[in-house]
Amino acid sequence: MLIFEHILLLFLVACAIAVSFSKNLLNSIIIFMSYSLVMSIIWILLESPDLAITEAAVGAGVTSLLFFVTLKKIRAMKEEDKKHE
Length: 85
Description:
Helix content is about 90%, strand content about 0%. It is mostly helical. The longest helix has about 35 residues, at about 50-85. The radius of gyration is 16 Å and the shape is elongated. The termini are far apart. The relative contact order is 0.11.
């Protein structure tokens, strides 16, 4: 079990580094979702199911959905700007 925890922690660090170096916004959102899901698993391993559910719902669910909608609106605004030029 200890090896599994170390793998999860290494994955968290890798996700944090990958998000900071990612140039594509869609990839950053997907990496952020995976970070939140792994963090939910870690909260379960720490025997804190209330935080795990909250992290999964808010971190991976609602926040990611808001990021996707925002990204779609940003791309729509860029396409409008190209049409007006």
